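Run folding on both entries below.
>entry_1
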Amino acid sequence: MWGHIYNCTRPRNTAKEDLMKKGPICVIEDEEDIREILMLQLNREGYATLSAETGEEGIQVVREHKPELVLLDLMLPGLDGLDVCRTLRENKDTKDIPIIMITARGEESDIITGLEMGADDYVTKPFSPRVVLSRMKAVLRRGSRNAADPSGKIDYGPIHIDPARHVVTLEGKPLDLTATEFKLLEFLVNRPGWVFTRQQIVDNVRGEDYAVTERSVDVQVVGLRKKLGDAAEYIETVRGVGYRARELT
């Protein structure tokens, strides 16, 4: 029965008040086995869950319950996942709810289209539920971090960014970045683990000292990595899609 809120399964050594902070998470997936596996894993982690089997039902459940995050299969009967994503992003009440796409499609164009429609990340089938949980927690952590630090300061591994002062330090030593490199680094590390297409980077990084285009994004990344030295490994290339800041463990 879609739209049902499932009870949490209390994890071992987890306080009751911590459980109350988790969820609900909405799983929109037409394959029953996959849907049940995801919901079971989420329940074990202390999340309340919602479920839907079709795109139309998923939209209704999300609008009614306002979950903390949506796990969205792209290949759904009727309204497909891309249309669901577009619909949720166009509605003022659901536009800010994080969406992670789950897809069996191997085409890069589907992933790029989903990300550019506003999905926050993606996982391809077959997948490990632990990978889905890791990606999901990274998305939720980002929201919590922004709420906790309204100043916008970012600590990411050995990198510290102070947007107000326009200063970046690496292991305490200042980095001499161009305005565009600064914006690129800030954009990526503010969302560790999230994958961004080149077009998304262009839309969010408007260079004052350099005309940012999809082609020039690669040049900017090369320059930024050079200045980061050994920390260049934190900026990862996602082949055929774009770039992300490595998720810290």
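>entry_2
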Amino acid sequence: MVSPLRALILDFGEVLTGPQPRQIIEGMASMARLPVEEFLSRYWRHRKAYDCGLTGPEYWSRVVEGNEDVPPSLLSELIEMDALSWSDYRETVWDIAAEFRARGNRVAMLSNGVADIICRVRAERRLNELFDAVIVSCEIGQCKPEPEIYRMCINRLGVPADVTLFVDDRVENLAAAENVGLRTFHFTGDQSVDALRTTLDLPVEPFSNTTNGA
């Protein structure tokens, strides 16, 4: 018999938020004077270093490397647009976290994230009140799918891995979570919300949650 879930770990990007809006991606590519696909290739190629503590100016200098006409002020503009691109909060998942926690369970946010974005999120959302643990890669110098970041999250929650559900949109992160004993749920967008509620034994119709605001 499978034990009931007692803890929930949620990824941030594309789980607690929606995907990056295409128009913002195109805007950043235009500012960087790069074709969109080349911009995206550079954006993700250097992202792990940014997630693990590289500063915003250092990261964006790598993204626009070779473009001699980029003014220094552009780096701060790109940092701001990047943060904006990850601020479309998926309220239905925040509601799930609040309702699951209200039943006496433990909830964490575990994100590969950068300081420039997590500072904005902390200003807009009372993360320490909404989650029992908040672990962001840039703050600890480790990224998913490295096993230690999952173990740290499990330890902070104080709940065994086999009764904890990890929710992420990336298959490689889910596989690593399973290797440390976590149960997993592959989140693929809004169509996954009802299935996640069912997995957590929550009613499909959520309660009204007013705790997410600043």
